[in-house]
Predict the structure.
Amino acid sequence: MPPGKPGYQDQFLTPMDLFFEVSRGQPYLLPLEEQRQVGLDPETWFLEITPDVDPWISEIGQSRLRESGTAISYEMLLELGDEKAVRYFKAMQCNNDRPTGGSCSNALWEGVPLKAVLERFVGSLADVRRVFYWGFHKEEKHYFASSLPINRVLDTPPGQLPVFLAYKMNGRTIPVERGGPVRMIVPEAYGFKSIKWIQQMVLTNNYQANDSYALRNNDPDSYMKTVARINVHGPREFEKGSSIRLNGIAMVGMSGLKKIEYWLRPDQGTHGHLEPDDPAWEKASWTELSYDSPPKNNWGSDLPGGKLPDGIEQIREGSGGPVIWPIPYSWVLWNLILPAQEPGTYEFYVRAVDANGNAQPQPRPNRQSGYADIASVQVTVKP
């Protein structure tokens, strides 16, 4: 898995060209004319929605098929967006993102709730328990699917964010490199739920998940953890007498964020790595560090003029400030300046504590539901 690109977490919103990528196949490398032919262009994009067949028979008001000319088009989606569009911040993170990986980025997404799409273009539903969906793939080995219970699609609790079909990213049309022209966005989930290049959807009576990752020992119903990460491209060596400057992010999962803490100690021969059962954890001396305040005038260089559009779910109307900070399902940046240390090597650890008081890697240490290992690096102060 390639690491995040340099600069991917230098600002609240990650520029499109620095966004991390984990995908099966690279359809954006197809010739432009072929991309048009297979529906990877706004003018030719389509979404088919069908009921399932035996043994998981379901019933829907109207099927949407490309062959019959009834598939949902990009224009139809945008027209619905004129009435029902929603916008929210959502950080993408790979379920298998290790502390050394940097497989995470943050964006502002805009689209139409899947509930509104089903109501407008499908109608009545009967014997539907899950939504199966997948995107374009040229070869069968690149097939990648995911699923959601129908109640997650139809019943969004007040104050929570809806599942939606996104057609804008950071105020612009989603490029094919980032999963456009349309991709699924599931706010509380890891990236494997937010399928790229979405084109197919089956409403099924099947109670089981069809997620591709479920077959590889991943938890298909896992939601994002609250974890702290260190910038994988940050400096690790410092001159004698100079301050130590480190930075990173904290992913704000479903359980929120209470604080971020660090632990610095002389290298004990572990080179910045401790096993989960090492007794040194019990004696660790954690110090709280501060994280960034909400941006005021520039939320990210990708946004037109660096300014937010109106109608963002997590932003208060009129005030321009966030309803909650840090913003759930997004990230917050931290920057730490430590005083000069004596020459030598040091171990630096950082962890997040969620709003329930659970310190990383708790409360869910199992990697099937996402990596929550404490991030650490070895820091050297030159003689």
Observations:
- The chain has four helices and 20 strands.
- The longest helix spans residues 74-84.
- Helices lie at 32-37, 74-84, 114-121, 150-154.
- The domain at 227-291+326-381 is CATH 2.60.40.650 (Immunoglobulin-like).
